Amino acid sequence: MLQRPLRVRKDAWRCRARLTRPNSEFLIADDGRRIGGMAFAAATTDAKIVVLNQLYVHPTCHRQGIGQALLEEVEASFPEARTLRVEVEEANAPAVAFYRSKGFLPAGNTADCGGGSGLPALIFEKTIG
Question: What is the torsional sign of CA 13, 89, 108, 51?
């Protein structure tokens, strides 16, 4: 169960922009009472490449298959895609292990995870479709 109320970001316009962005999917995993996880992915200008921008599972919901279910739904949402790409902060060992266990392979690195963070990240890709 969620221990804290969800916080609403002051920059809600960013959320609206994502929800209306063409060739994108915003997914919520919930049980009707609480949100257990979410994912946001969008196709690049080359529709064969999809970037998984966010995949979060609430800590109290870890190891229940929510991350796997969200990942599968992202893949199914882009039938034309052949590559799913994700950037993972180098220090986030659980996320690195998760993506590796789901078939993602190292494809490079960046000094700016997600653009604007200034955090180093590993880039992983998975062949889909």
Answer: negative
